[in-house]
Specification:
globular; 0% strand; 182 residues; 12 helices; mainly alpha
Length: 182
């Protein structure tokens, strides 16, 4: 039953974000107000679905998360960034490549638009999740596997964003000679 409800929720959100454009906020200001009021529930539902780690739902859930983060203004999402980052990080090494790529894309968008107010908190979440190590392993995996170039691109971009914003995380990358050979 939970999978059916989750699937329905994801289908509804996917349809909603497919119809929504930034232009809609200017043409119909009420859409923005409605969105602001419902983003708590949307992020909560999406986080719960991602937390389930159901193989059948992850592809759609990661796509919806990436779509939502790309589309919504960063001012609307800032309060939810820690929650989203936490859930997306846990899926960076998912065996479904599409899920890993979508999560990396979503995290790239989050970090690109991250406010300085949330920077320290997100930095701690990244550190606790051992994110730099995970990304280095993903890039190394790319060099020996048959993964698509989009995988490498998103992982490398996310790694570079983290290294740029949080310089102390650079040491473990510089000290990895196998990674530097990739």
């Amino acid at each position: 039953m939970l999978v059916i409800c989750s699937t329905s929720t994801l289908c509804t959100l996917a349809s909603y974000y497919s119809c929504l454009t930034l232009r809609a906020f200017y043409v119909w200001p009420f859409a923005f107000i409605l969105l602001q009021e419902s983003v708590d529930d949307i992020v909560g539902a999406l986080g719960s679905i991602l937390e389930l780690k159901s193989e059948s739902l992850l592809k759609m859930a990661s796509d919806v998360a990436a779509k939502m983060i790309k589309l919504l203004p960063s001012s609307v999402l800032q309060a939810h960034v820690p929650h989203l980052v936490h859930h997306l990080l846990s899926l960076l090494s998912n065996r479904q490549l599409h899920v890993s790529i979508s999560c990396a894309t979503a995290l790239n968008c989050i970090l690109y638009n991250l406010s300085t107010k949330r920077e320290k908190e997100v930095g701690e979440i990244l550190k606790e999740g051992n994110t730099v190590f995970v990304l280095v392993m993903n890039v190394k995996d790319f060099s020996v596997g048959d993964k698509p170039t989009a995988y490498f691109h998103e992982m490398a971009l996310l790694l570079s964003r983290i290294l740029w914003r949080w310089p102390p995380s650079r040491f473990c990358v510089w000290s990895d000679s196998k990674f530097l050979d990739v």
